[in-house]
Design a protein that fits this description.
The chain folds into 2 domains: about 60 residues, Multidrug-efflux Transporter Regulator, Chain: A, Domain 2 (Orthogonal Bundle), CATH 1.10.1660.10; about 170 residues, Sandwich (Jelly Rolls), CATH 2.60.120.10. Helix content is about 35%, strand content about 20%. It contains 9 helices and 12 strands. Strand 2 and strand 3 form a beta hairpin. The protein is globular.
């Protein structure tokens, strides 16, 4: 990682973020509760160069909302995720009214592999209750969860969605298929029917991201069109990508990412081979 990027990232973290202890005191909860909320995919805090969890003001507001939903509304984790997903504003763009219902498809795929709910959840490193809620369309999985499920089912994330399989060389802007995770991330397919690569346009809302780390085979390339994206590799390298930056990495390195700014991030993301 280049030294200027590291200095810029550290400066940003120092001036805009709270530690676990500070955040826990503000919310009146224990640090272990914050770690639990991260582990179940409710939030995805940043990390300092020393791998300490850090929380910005926007994430603090999300945490207050989570605490309210848990303590006052008595919602479970899947219920909280559903409410948070419904309250996220949808980004503007073509074909954004497509919200695929992947629950039935996931259940059919799991059963075709003769996998029980508990075994499939263990493979994907999520709870059986959360997987059940996803299959019943009562919870919205994050990008990281979708990736882990795809790996567990020996397929790709695109197989979870209703995507045309017929190859198409030219795709007009109004012909793009959009996949929305209800986690503030909208993905538009820029290529259909390719054999070795996947090219996508990502729009990431402020504070949104992968909601966890994932890894798979291959290589990935990112070109930033607008905004900021913070990406962590194996929780050791932190890279802050801004408009005009290009970046690549090996996909077998654990990676998670999020938008730390207050404006939407837009970027071209290319995977090879077909893994998404």
């Amino acid at each position: 990682m280049a030294k200027p990027s590291k200095q810029r990232s550290q400066k940003s973290l120092q001036t805009r973020y709270l530690t676990v202890g500070q955040t826990a005191r503000i919310l009146g909860i224990s640090p272990s509760t914050l770690r639990l909320w991260e582990n179940v995919g409710l939030v995805s805090p940043a990390r300092s160069s020393g791998r300490y969890r850090l929380y910005n003001p926007d994430l603090l507001e999300v945490l207050k909302r989570i605490k309210y939903l848990r303590d006052v509304k008595k919602l479970s984790v899947p219920g909280i995720k559903e409410v948070l997903g419904e309250n996220r504003p949808a980004p503007a763009g073509p074909n954004l009214n497509h919200k695929p219902d992947i629950g039935p498809r996931l259940r059919k795929m799991r059963r075709s592999l003769d996998l029980g709910l508990v075994e499939a959840a263990e493979r994907a490193k999520i709870s059986a209750g959360f997987l059940s809620a996803i299959e019943l369309s009562r919870a919205n999985p994050s990008i990281a969860t979708l990736q882990r499920l795809a790996s567990s089912y020996n397929t790709t994330v695109l197989e979870f969605f209703d995507v045309p399989h017929r190859s198409r060389r030219l795709i007009r802007p109004n012909q793009r298929r959009s996949l929305r995770t209800s986690k503030g991330v909208d993905i538009q397919l820029l290529s259909i029917g390719t054999k070795m690569l996947e090219c996508m346009l990502f729009r990431v809302s402020p504070g949104a991201g992968s909601d966890g780390a994932y890894s798979h085979m291959g290589e990935e390339f990112i070109f930033m069109l607008k905004g900021t994206l913070e990406i962590w590799l194996d929780e050791l390298e932190c890279h802050v990508l801004q408009e005009g930056d290009s970046f690549w990495f090996e996909s077998n390195v654990g990676h998670r990412w999020f938008n730390p700014s207050d404006i939407e991030a837009s970027l071209i993301w290319v995977n090879t081979p077909l893994t998404f």
